[in-house]
Amino acid sequence: MASATTVENIGATMAALSETLADLPGYNLLATSTTAATIIKSSSEPSTRGNGDALQPNDIWFDTDDGQIYTRNTSNNAWVAGRDATLVNVFGATSFTGSTLTAAMATAQSDIVTVTNAQSSTASSLSSLSSTVTSNNNTLTASVNTLNTTTASHTGDLNAMFVLQVATESNGSKSAAGMVVGSNASNGSGAQSYVQFQADKFAIWSGSSNIAPFIVDGGVVYIDQARIKDGAILDAKIGTLDGGKIIADTITATQIDANTITATEIAGNTITADQIAGTTITANEIAANAITTAKILAGNVTAVKVNTTDLVLPTNGGLVSGSTVGNFNSNSKRYAQITSVGSGAGFYQGYVRLVGGTGQVKTIHLLFSDGTVNTTETSGGTDTAELLDSSSGVVYRTPDIEHLNTSIVQSRLLSSADTANIPIAFRYTGSGTVTCYIYGQGDGGTRQIGSADVRFVKFSAS
Predict the structure, then answer these.
(1) What are the Cα distances from residue 28, in Å, to 37, 125, 196, 218, 324?
(2) What pLDDT does 232 receive?
(3) Cβ atoms of 39 and 125 closer than 8 Å
(4) How far apart are the C-alpha atoms of 32 and 427, rounded to whole Å?
(5) Residue 403 has what DSSP assignment?
(6) Where does residue 64 rank: exposed (0-12), middle (13-18), buried (19+ CB within 10 A)?
(7) Residue 191: helix, strand or coil by DSSP?
(8) Where are the domains of the chain?
(9) Confidence class of residue 436 from pLDDT cuts 50, 70 and 90?
(10) Is there a contact between 386 and 308 (Cβ–Cβ < 8 Å)?
(11) Considering the domain 316-459 in this protein, what is its CATH number?
(12) What predicted TM-score, i.e. pTM, was given to this entire model?
């Protein structure tokens, strides 16, 4: 028999159960606020409770003269007599007809007979025991109230209910506890019984131990020991669970839901090759970016262990349109940003491909920088000064592209030109983000390139 050492969070289930209980008859007879309903026995209409306190909604008055039961309305400004709904409906529907009282009585006689036949049989018993002490303008009250009621109608609607309520009040501090036991049925169907409790703390004692096996305290259920034949735990909190509590070979892959065990649930260095069955871990079982060099022993990964067929490495960069790159005005040199190619120190290897757009963009070279580059659009023959290899922030600067691809003449990117993939590689030792820029000028007007495709892979710098 397993021992529950912690509180199990089944709040959602208990909330759903509470909503179901609230729909049962008699639930509202239990006080749900700090001021409990009180039964008052009096031969005349009371204006205060028996202890002198102000009346509250749902208080009950038992008229000792005629046995009539009244309840205090929700507005707390009037007593409402207990009544049969069938009688009220028939009385409300009967109108005065005829020219004389005799004729009116004759007309109403059949309705009266109908009411008599349809009247339900109701029996109720009320008892109240209370004690009150007033000292130094402070009121101390303790009370016990019980209500027994049964109802039976000719249509087969049956109700039987027992209500027990205890309450105390001491200098403004109030508490109440109670129980409702009931059973009902409706015309031969829908029979149900119910037992409901209200208390700040509820416990069941076995009588042979000083530990209660079942306690509800502050909305939390505590179970000392439990045997559950078939159950589901939506959200569990377990204090400690070690290998000594698990029988060997009882937990296999079939007992573990997919994606439920992540790196946060596994202690460091607890899983070695001895615990992993051969060929059971494939790429589908490994989260992206989950395996780093820190998790691989030196010299353990060789070319034999790497499948180089269709090997795909992640790249930085992308395809950027000429309109995003921006304008190059006639004979006005400028830098324009294309895209970033990665961050941090490493060996960067990739390519740049430029495609022609509107007119000619000439005197083109490429720049890779981790600093601030002036990308202001120039015009009227004004040039942005070219950055040199020694300039601040410059990681790598290519020659003019005519020296990188023999199909480009005078570093001019005509509308029909395509540089194809220009291979580029460089080493970066900084910690910032490396961005690719294009430097050029328009020929004969405002020009744009067609597109720039920039793709780079970063390898370790060591």
Answers:
(1) 10, 18, 11, 20, 68
(2) 81
(3) no
(4) 73
(5) G
(6) exposed
(7) strand
(8) 31-84+120-198, 316-459
(9) very high
(10) no
(11) 2.60.120
(12) 0.40
